[in-house]
Design a protein that fits this description.
The chain has helices at 21-29, 49-58, 78-88, 107-117, 149-154, 169-175, 186-197; strands spanning 8-14, 36-42, 67-71, 93-98, 121-124, 128-132, 135-140, 166-168, 199-201. By secondary structure, the protein is of the alpha/beta class. The strands form 2 sheets. It has a 7-stranded mixed β-sheet, with helices on both faces. A two-stranded antiparallel sheet has the order 6-7. Helix 1 (21-29) links the parallel strand 1 (8-14) and strand 2 (36-42). Helix 6 crosses helix 7 (186-197). The longest helix has 12 residues, at 186-197.
Length: 202
């Protein structure tokens, strides 16, 4: 199925980048799916070493019109950074990627095709391979479809990572923004609200 006419916004939030931010961005650039934009939201303090380091990394992408770099004027937290990305997004679909994670090359293509081919679903979550220092540790399998809120409550590891969220823009508009009161588990809380309104496809 060719659905390249649908723009996908990938939101990458970064704070105290560990050096893998470039890998995360490159994993989107190297996708089989070509119609995307990347919004990098820098939540580091201005004039901090982390901000300077991140700015240096982002210089590599200055000439790439698909990469949008937004800098917060103070540290707001991860939920707020994701909300900044949502506000700037133009895509029909919105995906999230942590600055120390990467996508496999067909991630966007498969997610778009899944939602276009199954219009009764509003979001996708997928299996996640977990690595530490380039050593494979585990796979979190995506096996549940439909209303998965009970599974989320019973097992916070169901989503595997905040990088696992892929939603229709219409669903994001319906659900609203991330709750900025949450300093952790913002993705879990957000997906619980998504499941109140939409069925989720694995």
């Amino acid at each position: 199925m060719n659905t390249d006419n649908e723009l996908v916004t990938v939101i990458i939030t970064t704070y105290r980048a560990t050096g893998r931010l470039s890998e995360a961005i490159d994993s989107v650039i190297n996708q089989s799916y070509s119609n995307y934009e990347v919004i990098v939201v820098d939540d580091n303090l201005p004039n901090s070493e982390s901000r300077k380091y991140t700015e240096k990394i982002m210089e590599k992408y200055n000439s790439n019109s698909k990469i949008i770099y937004i800098k917060h004027d103070y540290n707001k937290n991860g939920a707020a950074a994701r909300n900044t990305g949502i506000r700037a997004a133009h895509g029909s679909f919105i995906a999230f990627l942590d600055d120390d994670d990467i996508y496999y090359p067909k991630r966007l293509e498969k997610c778009v095709n899944a939602l276009v081919g199954n219009p009764e679903y509003g979001a996708v979550y997928s299996s996640v391979d977990i690595y530490k220092k380039n050593e494979y540790l585990d796979t979190r399998k995506a096996t549940e479809n439909g209303c998965i809120w009970k599974k989320i409550l019973l097992n916070e590891g169901l989503l595997g990572t905040g990088s696992n969220l892929f939603l229709k823009q219409s669903v994001v508009k319906k659900v609203g923004f991330f709750d900025e009161r949450f300093l952790r588990y913002q993705d879990v809380e957000y997906m619980l609200r998504v499941t109140e309104k939409e069925k989720i496809l694995s």
